[in-house]
Design a protein that fits this description.
repressor, 4 helices, cell projection, three-stranded antiparallel sheet, mRNA 5'-UTR binding, Flagellar biosynthesis repressor FlbT, alpha+beta, cilium
């Protein structure tokens, strides 16, 4: 059994097994068993899902931390969004990363899938910047002060094995 120690600041949001927790003061917690959790900047609000890669991230996030119904819908949406993205991208690396992310999500390894999609988001930002479609430093960041709005009705994320 492994444990994970998290240090959280006042105002940080942590979602564990579907329950959003906001910290009133600085805390250090230890997760001693397997749990689905996301915290801080890992959590994307619906308002930040403004690009194709960000919509994929949000769909997989929902598949990870939503209730059973939301998880199924999130995974199905992720499949559709990934297929659309793969049709238009010219990058073989992006297609491979999205294939891997979808495979991981379908194996209920959504935390690892989200990590891959964050890389795709970075690539997407670079492409949009070079095309002049995204000003420097204009890319929305995953997470934010009101990340609680992103938490599906019963949410949690990040896995300790």
């Amino acid at each position: 059994m492994s444990t994970l120690v998290l240090e959280l600041r006042q105002g940080d949001l942590l979602v564990v097994n579907g329950a959003p927790l906001r910290f009133r003061n600085r805390a250090r917690i230890e997760l001693t068993s397997r749990a689905r959790f996301l915290f801080g900047k890992q959590i994307m609000t619906p308002e930040l899902a403004t690009t194709p890669a960000r919509r994929i991230y949000f769909a997989i996030q929902t598949a990870y931390i939503g209730n059973e119904e939301e998880r199924e819908r999130g995974l199905e949406l992720a499949r559709d969004l990934i297929a659309e993205f793969q049709e238009v991208t010219t990058s073989a690396l992006v297609r491979e990363a999205l294939d891997s992310a979808l495979t991981l999500a379908e194996q209920d390894e959504c935390y690892q899938a989200l990590k891959l999609v964050r890389r795709v988001m970075q690539h997407e930002d670079a492409v949009l910047r070079s095309a002049g479609a995204l000003p420097e430093a204009a890319a929305p960041e995953v997470g934010g002060a009101d990340a609680a709005a992103a938490v599906p009705s019963s949410s949690a994320s990040g896995a300790v094995a």
